[in-house]
Amino acid sequence: MDYNGVWTLGEARDGEIKEVSFELLSRGRKLADKLDEELVSLVIGDGITDQQAEELIKSGADKVLLMNAPALKDFIVENYSNVIEDLIEEYKPEIILAAATTMGRTVMPYIAIKTDAGLTADCTELDIEEDTGNLLQTRPAIGGNILATIKTPNHRPQMATVRPHSTKAAEKDESRTGEIVHLKFDSSLLDGRVKKLGFRKNEEDAVNIQDADVVAAGGKGLKKGENFALIRELAGYFEGAVGASRDAVDRDWISYPYQVGLSGKTVTPKLYFAVGISGAIQHLAGMKTSENIIAINEDPDADIFKVSDFGIVGDLFEIVPELNKQLAEEVK
């Protein structure tokens, strides 16, 4: 049984395609090019227009499989998994990528079990093995202390979820053309046992550091939790978000939703302040794609300076208060 093509699972809410769908295309495009295969974006929802689908093509998709139906307006894992399983049986994609979001982390295990496929969760890197064409899936393991590369050579499709914001969406190419396929919804695929009653944000959703343009993060160098007040003040001048290293979270100075790194969140802000953070590989993996990185650390050999655009060597308890003072003057 031949499997062919790379699929990315797009996400939509209230008829709008979410940004993570375009990030996935950037990943999928590289894999499809290496395999010399088609890149397909599958989008399920309601009220998604051809114009929105065209944006996916401009961002790298060769084809968009679009299924609109009022019954699919809300993400319900049983319904979505039935639809995707049915499409896998019909189209037989070789690789399926989804974001490691609530949707991706929920629906992909369902599909993997039902289709007897391999799945690697929360990947940070993806590649194609030269000799075999197998998908190489790299993800943190053992509490984020090592990176493991996994492959599933004996089952298809090969499936992976990818960390949101771990790569940037490709620049849109207005000259790209592709095919939009309108899929007919089969109502017999509705599970019927579950329905959406409402939506309530949890603490992680409320602490949305991944969409912030500016993130000020603190680490072990802050010495105690009370000193995160310096970081909050700094972030406030930019209407930015507060982040933290794993060391700071492990010491209970700040809660887990603020953690940046392999075992936390991946961020790609326009400006990232790393204050009192040494730059362990686990932390760098979560912020190194930031557009501009400013590091403040008293150790001139700290690894954080290797990825920084601007580094300040010195005592953060002298530098940050002075920086906050100068910023306060600017906003008066």
From TrEMBL:
Cofactor binding description: Binds 1 FAD per dimer.
Keywords assigned by UniProt, alphabetized: FAD, Flavoprotein
Matches recorded under SMART domains: ETF (SM00893)
Keyword Magnesium included in the entry's annotation: no
Record domain Electron transfer flavoprotein alpha/beta-subunit N-terminal: where: 6-194
Entry binding sites for FAD: 245-246, 259-263, 276-283, 297
Any Pfam family: ETF
Superkingdom in the source lineage: Bacteria
A GO MF term: electron transfer activity
GO biological process, one term: fatty acid beta-oxidation using acyl-CoA dehydrogenase
Obligatory cofactor(s): FAD
PANTHER family per the UniProt record, alphabetical: ELECTRON TRANSFER FLAVOPROTEIN ALPHA (PTHR43153), ELECTRON TRANSFER FLAVOPROTEIN SUBUNIT ALPHA, MITOCHONDRIAL (PTHR43153:SF1)
UniProt similarity note: Belongs to the ETF alpha-subunit/FixB family.
Full protein name: Electron transfer flavoprotein alpha subunit apoprotein
